[in-house]
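Usage

Read records sequentially. Each one opens with the input sequence:
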Amino acid sequence: MHEKLQLRDQVITPTNPQLEQILGESYKAYEALQNTLPELEIEQEWQWYTPSKVWAGRGQHRWTTPRGTSKEKTLYWLHVFEGWFSVAVWFKEKNREIILQADVSEKTKELIRGSSTYGKLPTFPVEFKVATDEPIADICVLIDSKKRLEK
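and closes with the structure output:
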């Protein structure tokens, strides 16, 4: 897939018409993901990152604890490329074996097994390159797993 990262103008917050133009046919897969977020209790917001000079979609789960404290958890990062987008769901290394038990395709399990660990607190990404809606179901399963595992 072409690797040209898009959404590099800090002044222009991403819009659906802009995304449709950049993503082309894969915009249908983007819509499919966006349509599943409400049932997973996830909101996606666009955030500008100065170090990389790019807009990224951040999937957030917000909840209130029994004591009334508002909490939020980032569940995924979305980057837009010319003709496709990526979704990365980061997990703690200690949860790798648990998510390998998730109801996902063998292709996704290979992504989980093959992902390298980063950082002082060992974490690893499961990154999907999305051009069709084929991986959307697995992405949603992993997002939901992260929401439940790491609250």
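Summary fields computed downstream for this record:
- The longest helix spans residues 136-149.
- The CA atoms of residues 75 and 143 lie 6 Å apart.
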